Amino acid sequence: MNPRQQRAALLMQQGRFADAERELRLFLAEEPESAAGHAALALVMAQTGRMDEAQRAAEAAVREDPEWPYPHYVRGVVMLRRGRTDAARESAAAAIRLAPADADHHWLMSAAYLADKRWQEALDAAECGLAQDPDDVDCLNARAEALVGLGRKEDASAQLRGALARAPADAGTHANLGWSLLHAGKPREALHSFREALRLQPGLEHARAGIVEALKAHNPLYRLILGWFLWMSRLPVRTQFFIVFGMWVAMRVLRAVERSNPALGPYFFPIFIAYMAFAALTWIADPVFNLLLFLHPLGRHALDAGQKRHAVAVGLCLACSVGCLAAGLALREDALLLAALGWAFACAPVTSAFAARHPRARRILFGCSALLVACGLLWLIARPVIGRDAAQQDAWLALPLAMILGGVAATWFGGLIATIPRRD
């Protein structure tokens, strides 16, 4: 290996990617046809978030030596990080064709299936890798994640404990065990695994996110909601949509039956209330419990900056809602009660905005949130000077009504636009 390549490899291990890039570019200036140099540069670019350059470097490595499996593997890793799972599987298949005995290539195939929630295919690919190397930690973790997706949580936990027996200092395995325990409804045990993962690798995002969920899961109400979220997360996006849409259709059918049979109203009313409460909780539970963690001396350190901003934004909307509700009940004014509902519904686009992965989708949703919040603030400012004129009061009620309608629209369309994959 060229001395520059050796220095670059050492710098990459130390996390000094800018220095590694400099060494690799100097090396490629001397040997522009080196597939190994282009592949290493692709990994450096991926680590620094420059995904377009990473893809170009990986494809250059494949062009320089298409019969070497490593460039195909590196291209697959880059494509996986870009969310292009079909291309990642294509590269994994090429690497497997050239070197079927390398467990890393089967892990890449499994990881690409996991990203698409194709649990059985992911399990099969991971087991192919384990057939080549029974101790491969990446394949063991991929198999455990697939087992969780298939609902085989106990098998997944046993798998991960076995992996930890082989590699007790692997932070990723500890984090995956924590998520497996969380899926199994064991937040206290999960919290221990997440803490161990962060002790071994302080910056591990997978473990930090798990700690947040494990802390919140100590609340019985959130534990129920978390169980719903985790169950839904194991389903394909299309199935999730049909479940939510099916619930809405069922409510519409019940409403039609109630209209034709008013005597059934008292029996259907609790169902409608439960549905509305559940729908509201699925939107605001996460930021509300993040807000509680933010106020907790230990929990606030587990939240990242985005979660803190999300919690504060939703908390302010809810504070306005509660304030309007209290004033409306005290003054017996329906307008204030309507405003309270408007502020509560404004939480939906705010939540969608913070959940969006695509930058353009995020900008659109933040713009909608800002517009609804502006409507609410304008109404609060204008209310003291509106006077008692009924026509003016009715006209100004258009603002809280707009907040309600905007919140309803966000409930349906916000979740869809928030799932647009990010293209780096």
Describe the 3D structure.
The chain has 424 residues and is mainly α. Among the domains are: 1-99, Tetratricopeptide repeat domain (Serine Threonine Protein Phosphatase 5, Tetratricopeptide repeat, Alpha Horseshoe); 233-418, no CATH class. The protein is elongated, with a radius of gyration of 26 Å. The chain has 22 helices and no strands. α1 packs antiparallel against α2. Helix content is 81%, strand content 0%.
What are the SSEs and their pairings?
Layout: H1 3-13, H2 17-30, H3 35-47, H4 51-64, H5 69-81, H6 85-98, H7 103-115, H8 119-132, H9 137-149, H10 153-166, H11 171-183, H12 187-200, H13 205-216, H14 220-233, H15 237-260, H16 265-294, H17 305-331, H18 334-345, H19 347-355, H20 359-386, H21 390-396, H22 398-418
List keywords for this structure.
0% strand; 22 helices; Serine Threonine Protein Phosphatase 5, Tetratricopeptide repeat; 424 residues; mainly alpha
- Mind describing the biggest β-sheet? none
Distance between the termini: 32 Å
Number of strands: 0
> Helicity range of the residues?
over 70%
What structural class should be given to the helix and strand makeup?
A: mainly alpha
Task: Indicate the overall shape.
Answer: elongated
Number of helical segments? 22
What is the residue-mean pLDDT, rounded to a whole number?
78
Low-confidence stretches: none
Secondary-structure element series: HHHHHHHHHHHHHHHHHHHHHH
Please report which band the strand proportion falls in: under 5%, 5-15%, 15-25%, 25-35%, 35-45% or over 45%.
Answer: under 5%
Overall radius of gyration: 26 Å
